[in-house]
Write a structure and sequence with these properties.
The protein has helices at residues 56-62, 75-84, 96-104, 118-125, 228-238, 253-259, 273-282; strands at 2-7, 26-33, 36-44, 67-70, 87-90, 109-110, 174-181, 200-207, 210-218, 241-246, 263-266. With 287 residues, the protein is α/β, with parallel strands linked by helices. It folds into two domains: 2-118, Nucleotidyltransferase, domain 5, CATH 3.30.420.130; 174-282, Nucleotidyltransferase, domain 5 (2-Layer Sandwich). The two termini are 33 Å apart. The relative contact order is 0.13.
């Protein structure tokens, strides 16, 4: 799992977090595997806020970042990350290291539009300014539009489910579990931070407290324009899956999963698939 945090120079784990996502000096990118930090790098912010071409959100999406940790973010960036399948978390931590610990310990808060920067929301929603009528002596073009130009579009709220989920009821006997996988799939792959837009699903057949069989399913809906969560749940239901694991689930997944008798289990992204299954399914009390 690759996580980007807007930082003050020089970046790194001990750098302080910049409160301004788009105008930060540098992004610290942290790679996490099985809950541990494996690599730390930096990406210079050459975004449009600082006079360059792409937006900071476009830059990070192109770097294969899976999640963002920030103290604040505008609604447009939040919407772009949602479209790219990049999870956005809000943090009150002061340093990069503290923020990463929040994410690993599942204490980071998934963001919604209500968490967007106050200034950005007010700018997007404020009415057009009213300029005084043209008068002799005023320069041409100064107020002649009278506030009739286009103003920023306010995107719809990006809905995310709450992080806390009820404890699953694990029954005895054989069952199947589908885990959203970040890479090629398999027991050694990592749990994806997103459900519907993950690259593969690792389907494990459990008998008693042992993994009996493993099958990898490519996510054929990863590039679908809409309805991805629902389609994916139905696909897994056809495979006989009774439990689904992922870093987070979209807003439409819960109702469909409930109708199909599938339980959702939210686990920290970046864990190995086998570790997540063992911790959240095999080593819990059964009903």
């Amino acid at each position: 799992m690759r996580v980007a945090i807007p930082s003050n120079v020089p970046g790194g784990l001990d750098a302080t977090i910049s409160p301004h996502f788009g105008r930060c000096e540098i992004f610290t990118v942290v790679e996490i595997r099985s809950g541990k930090i494996e690599n730390v790098s930096t990406v210079e912010n050459q975004g449009s806020h600082l006079g360059f071409g792409p937006t900071p959100a476009e830059i990070l999406a192109s770097k294969s970042v899976d999640a963002i940790l920030a103290q604040g973010m505008g609604p447009k960036a939040m919407q772009l990350f949602a479209q790219k399948g990049v999870a956005v978390y809000m943090t009150s931590a002061k340093t990069v290291r503290e923020a990463i610990n929040e994410l690993v310990e599942n204490r980071a808060k998934l963001a919604s539009l209500e968490d967007a920067c106050k200034e950005a929301r007010e700018s997007a929603r404020s009415p057009p300014p009213v300029f005084p009528p043209f008068a002799p002596g005023m320069g041409v073009g100064r107020g002649m539009g009278r506030g009739m130009g286009a103003y920023p579009f306010v995107p719809p709220t990006v809905q995310y489910p709450p992080q806390q989920m009820s404890k699953p009821s694990i029954s005895t006997g054989a069952f199947k579990v589908g885990v959203a996988s970040q890479g090629p799939g398999g027991a050694e792959d990592l749990v994806s931070p997103m459900f519907g837009r993950c690259s593969t699903f690792t389907v494990l057949e459990i008998d008693g407290k042992k993994i009996k069989n493993i099958r990898i399913l490519p996510n054929q809906y990863v590039s679908a324009p809409s309805g991805v969560g629902i389609a994916v749940v139905q696909m897994l239901a056809n495979e006989g899956v009774r439990y689904i694991l992922a870093g987070r689930f979209g807003p439409n997944v819960s109702a469909v999963a409930g109708q199909l008798g599938i339980q959702m289990i939210m686990v920290p992204p970046g864990m190995k698939v086998k570790d997540a299954v063992e911790q959240y399914l095999l080593n819990v009390s059964r009903g």
